[in-house]
Amino acid sequence: MTTVQAPPPSAPPPSTSSPSAPPAPVGTLPAVRPPAPRRRSVPRRIQVITGVTVTTLALLFGSLAVGSAAARDGLRVIGRDAGPQVLATAGLYFGLSDMDAQIADALLMGQGYGERRQEALARYERRRSEADDALMKAFELSGDDPAERRTVQSVLDGLGRYERLVGQALLLDSQARHPAGAPPERVVAVYRQATDLMRLVLLPQAYNLTLESGTIVRRTYDEKSVVVPALRVVVIVTGLVALACLVWLQVYLARRFRRVFGLALLAATLATAVALVAGASVLGQDERDLRAAKTQGFDPVLNVARARAISNSMQGDQSRYLLDKVRADTYEHTYLDKAQTVFYLPAGNLDAYHAAVTASRTGYLGLMGDRLGGQDGERTLSAYQAFQRADTGFRALAAAGRADDAVAARLGEVRQAFDTYDGALVALSRGHEDAFRRAVGDGERALDDLWRLLPFAIGGIALLILAGVWPRLKEYR
């Protein structure tokens, strides 16, 4: 009988738990270990702070660029574009009015002032050439404005008609060979057409050109006087925020890495502060230069130019007063209107105005009312009073029937008094022109210096920030 032996029992599997670790009590959860600190949180924070800093710096330099561009545009319009166009058209008004005055003087002289008559005609030719040049300049400066170009073309066409009438009047006057005084009626009739064309058509059109360009200057100044200061405030605010961000970045790096402040970031902070101060200073200077160019240069120069043109037309009315007896009263009234436009004092007639001007050193309004301060202003007023006194005597001679003496006075002492007054106006205008050019030039030079330094400041600050931040980021690579 065969006996089958059973296999030995297999050994139990080895335990995987550590012999020293006791079994966990029933019903308890295993302990949860805290996560290890993430190393990438520090570089991420550095990148965020650096990004915020760079953004504020971009806003600083962007607002600085926009503000300086706005200031440059204002200086360009006032000092190089519409401003010179206004002065050119004001010179056109003067040249046209003087052309008509010289023709009136030449017709009044007749055969009695041969050499002076030739001088008046030569001056007429010079003024005609100057008027042509002013019209060409106004046409060029008008750019693509169709209204201004049409006005300039209309003045050119009208000036051609005026010259033809003047040529006809001078031819008839030469044929008449009359002595000094009023020429024959046929001469006066032709000149009357010419002076009506000048006074009623050409001079108003020239004045309209001045008004149109002056509107551009005023609108530009009003806009830039608001925009430039506002952008200057933006530059200051963004600059201060950028400085705060740079300080924030340095403090964070110093605390996190337990090191002193980095020289590169300190240099970037200093460069940003310099850029902020320089940019705000330049914009502040340009704001002042814009104001000076407009209020101390452009406005006074334009007022004096208009006063000079109207005064020249006013003294032409003196010759027309003797030349055209039919319209003598009309020319006397227009003389008074023009005089009150330049130096206003309340007066109902010319005699009352003469008396008021003789007795008054203050209280004037009109174009020259605000221009009488200083030595040049006082000299101008004194010369104007002397001119009005000469006008009083000249009209007294005409009223007494002493036509020859009135003509001699008009072409002698009255003309000399006017030339002295006109010279005072020129000297007064020259001072304001110097202030105008100086303000525009100073503003443009300051902007040029800023634009030369701006690219270096932007590039330098960017490199300094990179040099200060990149070594810290490399420690985590």
From TrEMBL:
Organism domain of life: Bacteria
The transmembrane residues are 48-71, 230-253, 260-283, 450-470
- Kindly indicate whether the keyword Transmembrane helix belongs to this entry: yes
Q: Where is composition skewed (Pro residues) in this entry?
A: 1-25
> Any keyword Ribosomal protein?
no
Q: Where is this region: Disordered?
A: 1-41
Q: What protein name does the entry list?
A: Secreted protein
Q: Which UniProt keywords apply?
A: Membrane, Transmembrane, Transmembrane helix
Q: Which residues form a coiled coil?
A: none
Q: Which organism is it from?
A: Nonomuraea montanisoli
